From TrEMBL:
Protein's UniProt name: NADPH-dependent alkenal/one oxidoreductase, chloroplastic
Lineage: superkingdom: Eukaryota
Pfam families documented for this protein: ADH_N (PF08240), ADH_zinc_N_2 (PF13602)
SMART domains: PKS_ER
Alphabetical list of SUPFAM superfamilies matching this protein: GroES-like (SSF50129), NAD(P)-binding Rossmann-fold domains (SSF51735)
GO molecular function, one term: oxidoreductase activity, acting on the CH-CH group of donors, NAD or NADP as acceptor
């Protein structure tokens, strides 16, 4: 098999490089043959006989496929379909590519066949080059949130196995060296410690919309020492993070009062999440509220207003925009242990995933989905599904 594989790779190399040099000469990704070499790739598809693709089937499979999704991914090809950008900019820099190398799996990682992925504001800011100084090298396959099926495990993986249905935020540090190969692709490689088993009562679309937002919501509250009996005001309560802060504050921490802001048309949605005081920001100024809160969770970028309605000694969590004391900037650290801790609340139905009703967006509409996220009009999370 090794001789046949070497021959196949040799035959592939020449036409593949020839195509890419004509169509996209400036973009390269890490080669599967060596991390010190690169191969050029192009938006064109390089056709391979099925027999050659299956030479990459992993011989150390631990279990037979356990579901319909798993049965479709029992073999892993050399290349995959993915969305890629080779320069920073607007949505127009996003390109669909059908011949991106499937990422290598490190000892502590698993390879996931992606079933659904979700977009976050940080995906857009990263693509725009807002933190290029700490970003991974271009070209980039974007995407933080993933839900899918494990198809290969590294040698140091202890709990997960092939066939497991998992979800997670694939980047431990949101702004510091996020992965070059993200979740907007057929496959992605992720450290085991960043993942959890998908709750049994929700589907892949719902699961994909949770990780980054629910980790941000929970960890932000922990940073404020939030506890039972305390009050909270959530700015932008209908967003991906805000809608989960409301639920977690009330049902996980036991908040005494949960208030949140939204536009007029979304007030009933806030109440359905358990909000005690729904505030229409188009008609009311939060600075004028008689009530003061132990914590204000600013998920929209209005810290200057938030600090005026926090109690003395209270805390203001700031996700975006300028920071005014006692506000503090919060950037999430991905941790699968948080997902495991919250899984019982998801499985009991006390905390519900919120997927924007315009979605899920098909894989072919990733650029349109990004434009929608960047319009700040989404309710809950914008999810991409199905992924080929």
């Amino acid at each position: 098999m090794e001789a046949t594989l070497a021959s196949t790779l040799s035959q592939l190399k020449s036409p593949f490089q020839s195509l890419s040099s004509k169509l996209w000469p400036s973009v390269s990704l890490t080669s599967r043959e060596s991390k010190r070499k690169t191969i050029r790739y192009a938006p064109a598809t390089v056709s391979l006989p099925a027999s050659r693709i299956r030479l990459r089937v992993f011989a150390n499979s631990q279990s037979a496929p356990a579901s319909a999704v798993t049965s479709e991914v029992s073999s892993v090809p050399l290349e995959m379909k993915a969305w890629v950008y080779g320069e920073y900019g607007g949505v127009d820099v996003l390109k669909f590519d059908s011949s991106v190398s499937v990422p290598e799996v490190k000892e502590d990682q698993v390879l996931i066949k992606v079933v659904a992925a979700a977009l976050n504001p940080v995906d857009a800011k990263r693509r725009q080059g807002k933190f290029k100084a700490t970003d991974s090298p271009l070209p980039t396959v974007p995407g933080y949130d993933v839900a899918g099926v494990v198809v290969k495990v590294g040698s140091q993986v202890k709990e997960l196995k092939e066939g497991d249905e998992v979800y997670g935020n694939i980047n431990e540090k949101a702004l510091d060296g996020p992965k070059q190969f993200g979740s907007l692709a057929e496959y992605t490689a992720v450290e085991e410690k960043l993942l959890a088993l998908k709750p049994k009562n929700i589907d892949f679309v719902q699961a994909a919309g949770l990780p980054l937002a629910i980790e941000t919501a929970y960890e932000g509250l922990v940073r404020t020492n939030f506890s039972a009996g305390k009050s909270i005001l959530v700015l932008n309560g209908t967003g991906g993070v805000g809608s989960l802060v409301i639920q977690i504050a009330k049902h996980v921490f036991g908040a005494s009062i949960v208030a949140a802001t939204s536009s007029t048309g979304k007030l009933e949605f806030l109440k359905s999440l358990g909000v005690d005081l729904a505030i229409d920001y188009t008609k009311e100024n939060i600075e004028d509220l008689a009530e003061k809160f132990d914590v204000v969770y600013d998920a929209i970028g209005q810290c200057d207003k938030a600090v005026k309605v926090v109690k003395e000694g209270g805390r203001v969590v700031v996700l975006t925009g300028a920071v005014t004391e006692p506000g503090f900037r919060f950037v999430v650290t991905s941790d699968g242990a948080v997902l495991k801790k919250l899984n019982p609340f998801l499985e009991s139905g006390k905390v519900k995933p919120i997927v924007d009703p315009k979605g899920p967006f098909p894989f072919s509409k990733v650029a349109e989905a990004f434009s929608y996220v960047e319009s700040s009009r989404a309710t809950g999370k914008v999810v991409i599904h199905p992924i080929p």
